[in-house]
Every structure is written in C-alpha cells, then in structure tokens.
Amino acid sequence: MTLRFLAALLAALLLSACGRPDAVTFHAEGNPEKLSDWGLFTVSGGRIAARPGMVTYELQTPLFSDYAQKWRTVWMPKGVHATYDPDRWFDFPVGTIVTKTFYFSTPAGAAAPQTSGEVLKVTPATYQTGVNGLDLGHVRLVETRLLVRRESGWVALPYVWNADGTDAVLERTGADVPLTLVDGATRTPFDYSVPNQNQCGGCHVQDFRTRAIAPIGLKARHLNRTFPGEGGEINQLKRLVSAGYLTGVPSMGVPQDANWQDAGASIDARGRAYLDINCSHCHNRVGAARTSGLWLDAATSDARLLGMCKPPVAAGRGTGDRPFDVVPGKPDESILPFRLASTDPGVMMPELGRSLSHKEGVDLVTRYITALHGDCTENSGPKEGAR
What are phi and psi of 55, to 5 degrees? Predict the structure, then answer.
C-alpha cells in the first residue's frame, strides 16, 4: 500500500470515529458521500457559515443559472498558493477546494424555506453576499458543487441539500429539483437541474487539448473587483494575496471584465462581459465549440470571430432561419440572441446549466447587437465599421 493510500485510510478512520470534522478536511482520494465530511461549513442557529480560512468571493459578471443565487468560496492548505495568470484560470495548488452553493430566496412567510417549492426571482442577485454565511430563515439551499484540486487534476463533485438543510449528499448522476419561480404575480414552474459529473466537464473542460476540467470564474478579469470580507471592502485579488492564497499579481495592467449591470459602463463592454462568462468556456480558440468559428472570450477582437456577418457552421432549426450569428444593428436577424432566449434543448445556448431563459441577459445582448455598426449580406464578411 502507498503512503498516500494509508493517509487517506487513516483520515477515513478518524472521521468515522470522531464524526464530522471540525475544520476543513481535504480528501486526496475518494468521494465522500456527505458534504459535511469535508468540514467546510457549520450549520447551526439558523445559519450556514464558512469555516475559518475560507475566502468568499464574487464575480464581476456571474454566469446565469436559472436565477439561482450563488455563494462562492475558495480554500487552500497552509503554505501553498495559486499563481497569477492574466488570461487563464490561476494555477491552483494540490489541496485547493472551490465551493459554489446554489440557493434561492423564498417568499416571505414560508413556514419551511428548505422545502418551499416556490422561490423568488432576485435580480440583481444581491440578497445575501455570503460573506458572513446565509440566513436559512429565508433561503432554499439546492446544491453545493465542489472543485477539488488533487494530484491527478481537478475533480468535480455535486452535493444536493437534504430536506432539513443540515447536510448535502453526493449525487454523481445529477438530480432534477422541481421549483416554481415567483416574479411578482407571475409563477413559472421549472426543473432546476443539478449536473452529473460528466456534465460538469461539459463546461469546465475549457481546453480540448488537455480535456482537463478547471475553474471558470477564478480568472483575473472576473475577480478584479471590490468585495466585502476580511480586510474590509477591498479588491478581491488584494484579499487573496493578503491571505497568502495568490502570488504574482502585478501592480498595474490587471484585466477586468465589465459588470453587466453597471449602467455607467458601455453597452459593448457589458455585452462582451456577459458573453465571456456565459459562453467563452466553450466558445474560444481551444474550447469545445472552437470549430463553430464563434469565439466569445474577452481576448477575441476579430469581428468575424465574434459572429459579425458569420454564417453558422451547421445549419438547422438552431439558426431560427437567420443567416448570421450576429447582424450588426439587427438583433431580430441574429442567431445569437435567438439561441440565448430559447428553452428548447435542441436550440438553446448554453446547452447546459439552465431551464429558463435569462430575460435580462437576453435584453442586454439584444442592446449590444443593436449598438453595433455596419451591415452584411449573405456569405459576406462584416463591412468596415462593424465594430
């Protein structure tokens, strides 16, 4: 038996003898059946809170997931750190645990929020930041996804919360949770889908050459913003450096995506930021959708690659009988907003991670395309001034 196996066996024996761990516990091997086996959170007094050492963070523009709110944390063992990269996800060390808890606010007066079938549409999703934990008196916890950095690479583990909100159970095959989204007088039934482990790879494999999964949001351009927490309301990269979790951050020139809801930013910057976080993990030069010729990452500037006057690679009903991915100034003739608005599994984009259409996001992309200049004819490229 290897030393690593013996260490993992000893850790398992200690857990079985002592119950839940009282500190964050990294599992180098195996897939613990309960979220509590990782020792990440405490659940007591009507609150869920992170253990010491876990850093809560938020993205400049978050990925849409059926209006679910998200509480994100990262933890690393003592003595190690991530390495800064201006473009890609940071080089996180073995032992890193990234968590993302998906939850919904519940209607006022809900007697048992954790079993409430009705959940509130909250946009912008600022009801709770998660910095000091979540007040479970107003929350329906749905799932917590872990990304765990082991010697063999990142592993994705989806945990679904139980009916009393005391723990979550590993669901490697995924799960469907029937809910009703309440938006004023409008009630929309939908199935919230917890992805299986293979589906996790559908988004988190951002480079077809390695086929390895990696974090999506933990990139400089998404984290470069102020956010409350240890040290006050400061830049998140500065907080990670202060915590010893990140090194190599330059004093100047750190990239930053726009906040998609910031009315003071240009519509171009906001639209590009939204497409970057929601689409570019596949639509980039080395991603799963690279052969589509539609690259939506922040680094791409070529108008054709951004969809301007670009015919679709594969025709079909996914085009909505529209000739180009993007027709400058004409969103009603563009494929991109058509697919973002659809909930048809054979048409919609992104293909995974949602059952509902993001009305506000579609409106933003529509305005982004409306503001583009230029024109195109079938089988032609964008004319001068398309950007």
Answer: -105, 120
